[in-house]
Every structure is written in structure tokens, then in C-alpha cells.
Here is the input.
Amino acid sequence: MLVGIALTCVSWAASASDGAAARAVLDSVQYAGQTRYHYIYIPSKLLPQKPLVLMTHGYGGKAEGYRPEMLEVAEREGFALCIPQGLKAPQGKTGWYAGYPKQKGMREDDDAFLCWLADELCRRHGLNADNKFFTGMSNGGEMCYMIARTHPGVFNAIASIAGLTMKWIDESFPLKDPVPFMEVHGTADKTSMWEGDLSNSGGWGAYIAVPDAVDKMVKIDACKYLIHEYLPPLKEGSRTVVLHRWTGGVQAWKGGPECEVRLYEIRGGKHSWGLSDMDTCSAVWEFFQRYLR
Here is the structure.
């Protein structure tokens, strides 16, 4: 039985609506014997397709107040946005299970939970279960790669921000079905290193290089063409961003659009959403809306 807590309006979302009747509320579900919390944001004017985007925070992060820029895009573009709260590992940090050494003893079914949550939210809020999308940053980005492998048919498209493919995930869950996929990553990221860390020098566990992880997505999507594009500078002093687009893939679903893979390479970019160098939140939605049913 699903049990919700009393809805609580949060002030950090009010500014995102620019005076419109948008809201973000705190709610909960019961899943596998635990209470799991999330914020849900329904725009004042929802698109006819009634889409839902799930967005996961990073290691040690929290859902409250997370990425108000995405709330602004949700209000402007008309999609519902859910920001779930990760559980605490025994070591005390919140997050999503990616097999980090620091997550030893943590529940290991976060990928299944997030997929279940998306369907439950569609049921609760009258959203379209055929229009679900997923994005996350850092540890939340690891969930993007995990779900692309373990539950490839749940979300229409997935966008990772500074995320990684852990070596154990690559070995345990080979890609089996196509999924439109996007990655935004800084080449000078010292936390989630562009070049990978197969020796586990950073202590997060072994993971493969970002270009290699993206290449695996390109292959499963059977993309045929590669286009390189330099984005216009966001502002004076912003870093160079190169968009690598692989197109001409297999159909995302029968009768649907072709799968595409995108890699936004932020040259010299650090471990972040890259908001000082590109309009990342708008880029994520621009990618997702290609796959609205």
C-alpha cells in the first residue's frame, strides 16, 4: 500500500514559476518496506503529452532546493519534474547505489526503485507513462548509465551529467536494447575523470573512460553518422563546448524517431552541471522532447 505524507509547499520553487501558479511539493511513497521522499513539480500549463522527467542529485546531495534552473525549464516548457531523495549509506552520505566502496552495506535496488517511482508518479498525477525521461548528475549520472542497461525500455531518453559507467556495471549488465542517450562532461573533471579510472586511484571504484562509455551507447543504438558542432559561447569567458552528435540510429520504438547519442564535451570543465558554459537544463529538455510520444 502506498502512503503519502502531507504535501508541503517549498519556497525555493516559487521563484521558478515567475509568478505563474507552479508548485513543488514534498511527498513520499512506501517502497520495499521503506519510506522514500521526493519533490514533485507540476507546471501551470502541462504539455498535452503530459511528460515526466526524473532528476537525481549527486553523492551526498539532497532533493530540496536542487537545480532550480530545471524547475524554470519545466515551467516554461510544460513538463512535470520529480526530484527524488537518495538514501543514506551506512557511512552517512546520501546517494544512489553505484557500488562505491563508501556505499558498502547500502540497498542495491535504486535503479528498480526509480523506474517504479516514475510509473507511480504517472498514476498519482495523471501523467503519461509513455512519456517518461531520466536525468541525473554525478552519482545521479551513474544511475543514468545503470538504468540504460538494466531497464532500457522504461524511459524514452536519458541524459547523464558528469556521470560514469562503473566497471562492475559494464561487466554485469551489458547493453541489450537501444535508448537515446546524452552526456555532458568536463574534460578537467577530477571527480568523474574524462579519461576513466580503471585502477581506482580516486577511491570511487574502477570506471571506464567517458568517450568509451558513450561509444558503447552509440553501438547499441546503431548510429551511422557523427557530427561535430562548436556551441556559441554562453557568455564572455565561458569554456569551449563541443557537441558530438551520433545520428541515424535504430528506431527508439516501433514507428518512433531514430535513436541519437549526444556528448557535450566541455573543454577544461570541472565536476558540475556546466551551467557557466552552456544552458545544460534547456539542452537536456531539447533532447528529451525529440522523443515525446
The longest helix spans residues 110-125. The chain has a mean pLDDT of 92. Residues 8-291 form a domain with the Rossmann fold fold (CATH 3.40.50.1820).
